[in-house]
Design brief:
Strand order of the largest sheet: 1-2-3-5-4
Number of strands: 5
Order of helices and strands: EHHEEHEE
Number of helices: 3
Shape: globular
Strand content: 25-35%
Largest sheet: 5 strands, antiparallel
């Protein structure tokens, strides 16, 4: 299926202010990183990955900006696999909804539907100090 994130040799991190421009900056950075890593921009996973990323960053900006002034995106990649985690400093760890075709109304529903539709995985990881969390998406290429 997909490799554990720790085993992926390619890495890139981006930290941006938790404001509306963060979504555009994260998408543009993702496109540049994917191109650097040799991911074909027309690969069927790329556009959904960019939408998933946009939804996650938007959620961090909307729901965590009051307690977390920045959003960090970590990209990881390797042979046949792409992963990214979106981190904010808000302590609430959301429950990821089950993906069911046609039920996504945006936000995490869309994230899960797209991720599972591509054969990927999603997980929420809390910070060890309990003050923040990351949502990690892993997609096969």
């Amino acid at each position: 299926m997909t490799a554990p994130v720790q085993a992926l040799p390619l890495r890139h991190a981006l930290t941006v202010p938790a404001e509306g421009s963060a979504v555009r900056l994260a998408r543009e950075t993702a496109q540049m990183v994917f191109a650097e890593w040799g991911v074909n921009p027309h690969h069927p996973a790329v556009d959904p990955a960019l939408l998933i990323l946009s939804e996650l960053v938007t959620n961090s900006v909307r729901h965590a900006a009051d307690s977390a002034p920045t959003v960090t995106v970590v990209f990881a990649g390797g042979a046949g696999c792409l992963a990214f985690g979106v981190h904010d400093g808000h302590p609430l760890r959301p429950t990821l909804p089950r993906a069911s075709a046609g039920s996504a109304a945006g936000g995490l529903g869309t994230v899960m539907e797209l991720t599972h539709g591509l054969g990927g995985t999603a997980v929420v990881r809390g910070d060890t100090d309990g003050r923040g969390k990351s949502i990690w998406i892993t997609l096969p290429l």
